[in-house]
């Protein structure tokens, strides 16, 4: 668990402990931006009651975004979105059988009325979900806006400082 002392603004949830290899990239980015967050395993299929409880209490507990990662029959993000209006950011975890295409399609194809913002399959999706959550928070949290701007500036400088791919 990476809960901080401050009340979490973002929930990072996943269907199984086996999703952590991917979802740690969301947590690491949030940490780097100084965003208080919590990390939980909540399964749509194995712990449906816990999922409903988590989603039902999310807004009241102060969560402003929920990053939800799952693989295979990835119902977690959509089911959370069905029980809360807190923005849900879905991360398709790369599955063993179908490389995450199953996860992607089952997260992205929501019916009109219950949106889930869907990100790329795997590590990049988890990282970008965290950065997107930061963008959402930046509107009301100037310290997050500053951290995000600084990250973007560093990223740009790193590319510019090493733009010859033949040089390590
Ligand atoms: C999904 O099933 C999880 O999100 C995970 O990606 C996948 C496999 O889970 P395990 O069998 O590894 O627990 O619910």
TrEMBL record:
SMART domains: AIRC. It is an enzyme of class 5 (isomerase). Its EC number is 5.4.99.18. InterPro entries: PurE_ClassI, PurE_dom, PurE_prokaryotes. Residues 8-159 form the PurE domain. One of its GO terms (biological process) is 'de novo' IMP biosynthetic process. One of its GO terms (molecular function) is 5-(carboxyamino)imidazole ribonucleotide mutase activity. It comes from the Bacteria. Keywords: Isomerase, Purine biosynthesis. It catalyses: 5-carboxyamino-1-(5-phospho-D-ribosyl)imidazole + H(+) = 5-amino-1-(5-phospho-D-ribosyl)imidazole-4-carboxylate. It holds the Pfam family AIRC. Pathway: Purine metabolism; IMP biosynthesis via de novo pathway; 5-amino-1-(5-phospho-D-ribosyl)imidazole-4-carboxylate from 5-amino-1-(5-phospho-D-ribosyl)imidazole (N5-CAIR route): step 2/2. Substrate binds at residues 16, 19, 46. The keyword Isomerase applies. Catalyzes the conversion of N5-carboxyaminoimidazole ribonucleotide (N5-CAIR) to 4-carboxy-5-aminoimidazole ribonucleotide (CAIR). Belongs to the AIR carboxylase family. Class I subfamily. This is N5-carboxyaminoimidazole ribonucleotide mutase. It comes from Lysobacter defluvii IMMIB APB-9 = DSM 18482. The lineage of its organism: Bacteria, Pseudomonadati, Pseudomonadota, Gammaproteobacteria, Lysobacterales. The gene is purE.
């Amino acid at each position: 668990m990476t809960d901080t002392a401050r009340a979490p603004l973002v929930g990072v949830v996943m269907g199984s402990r086996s999703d952590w290899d991917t979802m740690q990239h969301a947590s690491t980015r949030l940490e780097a931006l100084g965003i208080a967050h919590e990390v939980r395993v909540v399964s749509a299929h194995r712990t449906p009651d816990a999922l409903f409880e988590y989603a039902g209490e999310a807004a009241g507990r102060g969560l402003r975004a929920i990053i939800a990662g799952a693989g295979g029959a990835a119902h977690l993000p959509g089911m959370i979105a069905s029980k809360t209006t807190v923005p849900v950011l879905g991360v398709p975890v790369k599955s063993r059988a179908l490389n995450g295409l199953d996860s992607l399609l089952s997260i992205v194809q929501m019916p009109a009325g219950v949106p889930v913002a869907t990100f790329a399959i795997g590590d990049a999706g988890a990282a970008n979900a965290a950065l997107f959550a930061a963008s959402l928070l930046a509107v009301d949290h100037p310290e997050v806006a500053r951290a995000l701007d600084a990250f973007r500036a560093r990223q740009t400088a790193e590319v510019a400082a090493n733009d010859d791919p033949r040089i390590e």
